[in-house]
Amino acid sequence: MITQHRNKIEYIFGATTFHSSFSDPNRRIRQHNSGQQAGGAKKTDNRGPWDMVCIVHGFPNSVSALRFEWAWQNPDKSRRLKEIVLKKSAKESQFAFRLRIVCHMLNADPWKRLAWLIPLEEIPFPADIPPPKHMVKKYGLVEKSNETVSKDPEAYQKVEDCLICSQPIEALSQFVRCQQMKLCVTHYHTRCLAEKVLKQSKEFEVAIVPIEGRCLRCHSSWRWGDLIRDQQKLLQISTVAQEQHRISNAALLIPRTL
């Protein structure tokens, strides 16, 4: 069984504000409310109860999440933000100021390609700093999803050649696919698809990956973050299938029904 995590930045508040990176939101909030001896931060020890009020997620790895966290904590030192000159106004609460900072961050490269989640209640963006149009905002509780990995070799299939270059895809870390899995079985090299879409949108000289695009075969739309999230899930499944279930060649197999 695999558990779906993504690197995230949390923003929690009680009598003051605090933000940090984590992979399991439910576990992390319990640690903060249980104190430093249970793994919570020194800054939050004996100052609760704490509530989690917003989450930024979709980071490709923990390093990028930690860089985002540092920039959020140090907007005056971040080369991405220091030109904006973000300063707290006299009438602005600490929470409102931190929310304003992150709103600016979510509209700046490279972070404007991430996702956004506000648990429990809708906290609006400042009117003068709306989120990018492609950014999906969700409201509600954070849910953990589990995926059972089949032990049956017949439950898997080989990855197809890349539609763009017609060459074999040699690793799942180089693989993305159309998200209409029941209707379209188109597979791509990550690099081939990114370059193709960036050239079509005339962003090839200024960006490494696109924000969104369409399948070159069925023309269904996708967001790049969803393609990479799917890729990471398949990599986890492949690791379990190969290391725990001893399925041969699992490194280049994907589930037939996922």
UniProtKB/TrEMBL annotation:
GO cellular component, one term: Slx1-Slx4 complex
Source organism, top-level taxon: Eukaryota
Renumbered residue ranges of the record's region Disordered: 23-46
UniProt GO molecular function: 5'-flap endonuclease activity; crossover junction DNA endonuclease activity
Classification via PROSITE patterns: GIY_YIG (PS50164)
GO terms of biological process kind: double-strand break repair via homologous recombination
Domain GIY-YIG, residue spans: 1-84
PANTHER family attached to this UniProt entry: STRUCTURE-SPECIFIC ENDONUCLEASE SUBUNIT SLX1
Protein name: GIY-YIG domain-containing protein
Organism (species): Panagrolaimus superbus
